[in-house]
Amino acid sequence: RIVYVNGDYVPEEEAKVSIFDRGFLMADAVYEVTSVLDGKLIDFAGHRARLGRSLTELQMDAPVTDDELLEIHRELVKRNGITDGLVYLQVTRGNPGDRDFAFPNPAVKPGLFLFTQSKPGLADAPAAKAGWKIISIPDERWGRRDIKTTQLLYPSLGKMMAKKAGVDDAWLVEDGFVTEGTSNNAYIVKGRRIITRALSHDILHGITRAAVLRMAKEAQLEVEERSFTIEEAKDADEAFVTSASAFVMPVVEIDGATLGSGKPGPIAARLREIYIEESRKVAV
Ligand code: PLP
After folding, report:
1. Where is the chain membrane-spanning (predicted)?
2. Is-catalytic flag, 190?
3. The pTM is what?
4. Which one is catalytic: 119, 148, 159, 164?
5. Ligand 1 pocket test: which of 171, 184, 209, 279 has the largest number of ligand atoms within 8 Å of its C-beta?
6. Domains in the chain and their CATH numbers?
């Protein structure tokens, strides 16, 4: 695989990052994951805009211009012959040459790292036909989940708890209400109404979420942005999650309770089709 490290395209074996890079020492870094279908980037403008917001919130400098960022994504997709897959991007506060809690002053050059992951058939993952089973666990992350940082230890532990329980993922619960999944936004469906938590510092502002809610409204579905409990979710007609890598993924079981027929619900299945179809049309 050819990866991108601080201005260079190199074979992954030759990629090097300093042990003093603050991304490595302090998770002082933000990231984005953009999916690729038919060799084209899905929702790139949204991911680029959110990266800008994450950097601003953490007072970090943008390492390259927006146009350069698109160019690097495209070049990696091309060099690695990616038809379907993902591009991972990470920006760190850089390498001050030593370890210190305070940010380097003056700022040092930010680190910029990208790599691709090939996932043939990403859009027709068999999991989407079966739907995901999930468990609920407490949300023990920090308070600024709207910033897409690389502090992923708790979501990673959550994924392991799900695996141990023999299911696909976990929904995080705070003060009695679902925040989101370990790496996706969470939804329930009642009749023709889609319910998902409102945007705040409590959840990541999903790029897929924004697109799917817009498309849902265009499809004459009602959208209600409010918090819901696990009890309400277990009683819903359908549930699903969204993310750049899972698109729209139906949820068929919550904490052992089967939703509806135990098969992906028609609204989740339809939104998945619409999202993939519409996004392909405007992919770059
Ligand atoms: N919520 C969390 C915690 C995530 O990590 C992610 C994606 O990684 C999402 C939601 C979904 O965001 P997006 O649709 O932009 O991929």
Report:
1. none
2. no
3. 0.97
4. 148
5. 184
6. 2-122 (3.30.470.10), 126-281 (3.20.10.10)
- Selection from 268, 243, 231, 241 nearest residue 167 by Cα: 241
- Number of neighbours of residue 180 by Cβ within 10 angstroms: 26
Return the axis-axis angle of helices 44-57 and 66-79, rounded to nearest 10°: 130
Give pLDDT tens digits for 61-101: 999 999 999 999 999 999 999 999 999 999 999 999 999 99
Q: What's the CA-to-centroid distance between 171 and ligand 1, angstroms? A: 13
Q: Which atom of ligand 1 has the smallest separation from the CA of 50?
A: 15
Task: Say whether the ipTM exceeds 0.95.
Answer: yes
Q: Are 139 and 186 contacting, i.e. CB atoms less than 8 angstroms apart?
A: no
What does the pLDDT look like over 198-220, one tens digit per residue? 999 999 999 999 999 999 999 99
